[in-house]
Amino acid sequence: MAPVTTGQKKSPKSRPSARPLKRKRDEEDLDNLIQQVQDINVRESDYDTFARLPLSQPTASGLEASHFKNLTDIQKKGIPHGLKGSDILGAAKTGSGKTLAFLVPVLENLYRKRWTDLDGLGALILSPTRELAIQIFEVLRKIGRYHTFSAGLVIGGKSLQEERERLGRMNILVCTPGRMLQHMDQTAAFESDNLQMLVLDEADRIMDMGFQSTVDAIVEHLPKERQTLLFSATQTKKVSDLARLSLRDPEYVSVHEAASSATPSTLQQNYIVTPLPEKLDILWSFLRANLKSKILVFFSSGKQVRFVYEAFRHMQPGIPLMHLHGRQKQTVRLDITNKFSATKNSCLFATDVVARGLDFPAVDWVIQLDCPEDADTYIHRVGRTARYERDGRAVLFLEPSEEEGMLKRLEQKRVVVEKINVRQKKQQSIKNQLQNMCFKDPELKYLGQKAFISYVRSIRIQQDKEVFKLNDLPLEEFSASLGLPGAPKIKFLKGDNAKSLKNAPRQAVSSSGEDDSDTEAKLRKNAVKTKYDRMFERTNQDVFADHYAKLVDDGNNGEVKKTQNVNEENDFLSVKRRLSDASSIDGESSENAMTQTSGQRKNAMAPLVVDSKRKEKLLKSKKKLLKLKDKGKKLVYDSEGNPHEVYELEDEAQFKQRGPAPSQQAKFLAAEQERLQTADLADKQAAKAKKKEKREKRKARERNAAESEELEEGAGAAILVPDEEFEGGVGEDAGFDAIAREDAVDEEGGREVPAKKRRKKWFEDDLGDETQSKHHKRRKHDDVTMQEPETLEDLEAMASGLLG
Hints:
Layout: H1 18-38, H2 57-65, H3 73-83, E1 88-91, H4 98-112, E2 123-126, H5 130-143, E3 151-154, H6 160-167, E4 172-175, H7 177-186, E5 197-201, H8 203-208, H9 212-221, E6 227-232, H10 237-246, E7 251-254, E8 267-273, H11 279-289, E9 294-298, H12 302-315, E10 321-324, H13 330-342, E11 346-350, E12 365-368, H14 375-382, E13 392-398, H15 400-412, E14 418-419, H16 431-440, H17 442-460, H18 475-481, H19 498-502, H20 517-526, H21 531-536, E15 553-556, E16 559-560, H22 590-604, H23 613-619, H24 622-625, E17 635-637, E18 643-645, H25 652-657, H26 661-715, E19 719-722, H27 729-732, H28 734-737, E20 738-741, E21 744-745, E22 752-753, H29 769-785, H30 792-803
Parallel strand pairs: 1-6, 1-7, 2-4, 2-5, 3-4, 5-6, 8-13, 8-14, 9-11, 9-12, 10-11, 12-13
Antiparallel strand pairs: 15-16, 17-18, 19-20, 21-22
Function: RNA helicase.
Domain Helicase ATP-binding: 79-253
Region (Disordered): 1-29, 502-521, 554-614, 653-804
C-alpha cells in the first residue's frame, strides 16, 4: 500500500481556474467605480488630490508615475463634471492645467464603458497648432500608459497614406482641424459614428486662425449623442457661438472671473515705451545683459523672425539662438521645440504659433518686441512663463503711438502692466553693424527688406486702428535701423485716395473756383497729370518747334491759335486737323463721338457732318460703323413656339399674383435645394454603379486570365504549322510561310480553343481574289528566277528575264 503524503498536489481537474475569478473581481471593481462616480456631488466637491477622486487603477497609476498629485483650480471644478458625462465650457488662465482637466475624463469614460479596439474611435481631441497637439499627445501617453487603448496623433506635415493605414484602429485621436477633415472626406476606413467624446482645446485660437468652417464641417460628421468639452483661456463671441451650436446644457467652469487679474499672480509684467527704430538696439542690449536666462521673443511675422535670427546669429550675442515660425517644416518645428524645452539658457525668436498652450519649462522672460493684436493675444503670450505657480517676467515693447490704446485694452481685461525705463548707459547701438552686414551680404539685405514689408503689412491689416496707426510710424528711420539703405517701396503706402486722384478730371484745379493760392497749389500738386499737361506747363516754350504753336492756347476767349504755314505740306510734323469748340473731340473718346453721331441720326435725323480728318477716318472703320447699325434682339422660343427676348422682364401684375417676393424667394430656394439634393443622390448612385461595373470587369478579366493560363499550361507551348498553299513549306521560306499558332485542342472535350490573336499573313489583306492570285504568281516567278544558275544557259536566261 503506497504511503499518502500531505504535500501531494491536486489534479488539474480539481483545481479551480483563476481567470474567471479575476474577471469577476474586475467586474465588481468596475461596478463600484461606476457607483462612486454617480455619487459625486459636483456642487460640494472638495477634492484636493487625484487620490481622492474616483478613478480607475490604470489612470491612478499613470498619474502617480507622471508625478501628478495635487489638483489645480480648473481641475477641481472640471474633472467631476467630466466624469459624470456633462458637457463643459471651461475658461481658465494659461498654465492652469487644462490639459489634464479633459484627458482624465476621456480615459475614465472610455474605461467605464469597456471600450476596446473593436469599438472604433471613442474620443477626438482638436488642437489649433501642431505643437500643442504633440504636447497633448505626450501627456496622454504618460498618464495613459497602463491603459489598453490605442491612441494616435494626426497632424499635417506627415505622410497621409501612413495615417490612413492606422486610422481605423485608433480609440483616441489628437489632431489638428485641417488634417482631420481631410481624413473624414477622403479616408474610407475612418468611421466616427460611435464617437463618445469631443474635446476642443484653445477653442478661441481655433476660431481666430480661420478654422471655423472646418470645425463646423467636422462637427457635422460626428454623432449628435456625445459628450463635448470646450476649453479656452479667453471667451470670445465666436467661442460662444460654437458652444451654443455644439454643447447641450453645458456646465460653465471658470476659475479667473473673480480674480483681480487674468494673468497669474506670480507674473511680473512691465512695458517699455521706445521708438520703432530703437527696438533692435534694446533687444540686443537685453540679450547681452541676460546670457544666463531662458528667453522667448515674440514678433508679428515670420520674415521678421528669420531676419533678426540671421542678423543676431552673425553678431553672436553670447547666448544660443533659435527661431520658430509657421513656414518651417514640421520636423524642424518639432526639433526646435524639443531643443528649447530641454535647454536652460537660450533665446527663441518666434511668432504667435507658439503663443497658445505650449508648455516650455522654466521660461524666465517673455519679450513682446511687436505689440500684440489684442489683449487676449497678450495674455496668451505672457502665459508661456509663470506656469504652475512658478515665477516669471514679461516685457512689452510699445511705440509711442501705441501706448495709450494698448494700455486701455489691457485695463479692460484686468491686466496691470507697470512702466519701466531703459538705462541709456547700458544700451548698445547695432545700426552700423547691420548696415555693414547688409552691404556685404545681399541675402541678408533681402531678408531685411522682406522683414520691413511684412511688419508694415501686419500693422496695416490690424482692425484696431486706435492702437495701430501706420501713418504715425517713422518708417524711414525704421528701415535704417534694419541696415537697409532706404525704405522699400510698398504699393499701399501711397494712400487710400490714390485711385480717386487718378480718376479726377484734368481741370479740377481750374474749376475749383478757389482764390486761395495755397489751396490751388496743393490741388495742382496732388492732381494726376498726363504727359501733355506736363508739356504745356513748361516755362521754356520757345524751344519747341513750329508745329507746337498750332496746339497752344493763346488765351483769346478759348479760341485755338491757327497758325498756317505756306509750306504746310512740306512740314516734318504737321497737324492735319482743325480744332474748334463745336467739332473738337479731344476731350472725348472715339466711342463717345460715335455715340453722339448715332444719336443725331436716330433722333434728329440730321445730316452727318464730317468736319475733321479724324472723324472721316473713324467713319471708314468697319468696327466703328457696327455701333451705328441696329444689332437686333436675341430671341428664344418657348415650348409653344412663341419668341421671347433673352432678358425679357415678367409682367409686374403676374409677379404679384403669385405672392410676396420673400415667399417666392423661399419657395425658389427650397425647390432648388431639393433639385440639387436629388441630383446629388443620382450622381452618387451613378458613381457607385460605375465603380461596381469597373470592379466586375476587373474580376472578369482576372478570371479569364486565370482560365487562359490554365489552358496554356494544359495544352503546352505553341506549335509551328506550315502553310500548305506554298510549295516551299517551312523549310524553304519560314519567314513567310510559317506562323506561331496558339490554337490548342482541349484534351477532354476535343474541341478547338481559338487563339488570342493570330498574325495576318502577307497575302491576307483587302485585295480581291484576282489580285491575290497575281501576287501569288509573282511570288512563284520570283522564287523560280532567283534560284542559283548552274550553267551558262541558265545565267543567260536569268539575265534576259531581268532585262525584261
